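Methods — Computational structure assignment.
A single polypeptide chain was analysed. Its primary sequence is given first, followed by the predicted tertiary structure written as structure tokens.
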Amino acid sequence: MPHAPLLRFTDVVPLRTEVAGWRRAGARVVLVPTMGALHAGHLALMARARALGQRVVASVFVNPTQFGPHEDFSRYPRDTETDLALLAEAGVDAAYLPEVSGMYPEHFSTRIEVEGLTEGLCGAFRPGHFSGVATVVTKLLNRVQPDLALFGEKDFQQLLVIRRAVRDLDLPVEIQGVPTLRETDGLALSSRNRYLDADERARAPRLHAVLSRIAEGLAAGGNAVPLLAEGHAALTAAGFGPVQYLEVRDAETLAPLERATRPARVLAAAYLGRTRLIDNVPVG
């Protein structure tokens, strides 16, 4: 049976009215926030959302407040019509496409800061990034008012920051992470992969290979210090640089670890040419 046509909203009032009707009818509502430029990883999130709820909303919004002054906001890939076609094909019920002026009206002056989890890793290299993420996600959750929201685990630090903000602010929504979807050679799917030229694309899977090798060493009882040193050397040899970080962190608190005595993640961010790639793998 064909799915109902995709609803499109740019204003919050009609969106809330529609969602309220679904909830009165007993439907579980799932939100999948995106910045567009959709790929198979996003579509896996949509499929998971369909499995977990009766109604699915996907937001498409390139959020300016999470980009630094010298980052890629202006060139971040945008293709709204293709995104909408993919969402319709995926069986999403509604697409929410707010305008920047609607999300951040004149004199907007409130930001959410999550301490602790935002220190180090991407937080050390992207000042203000996680404040922008926490603020926009909180606004999206308040606007859509879903029962559940899904986020990919590729942005693992982001996932933990969002969970903490939701917990600390008593937002009535469950946050669930979805494992990273990868190409057959291991490269994590990302909208920014389209920045890679052919040679860079051929070398990019080394990032996942290095992280996996470190995770295997830790799972076997190894110490993170020599494993990370070997990993840095391997990434440099593969043409990555600068390597902004390559670390082993507690999977709940993001505290640095030398040994995997509790659930851990190996996380990295490194440039390949002009493209910044991030990835992480669980230990064990």
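Note: The chain has two domains: 7-178, 191-282.
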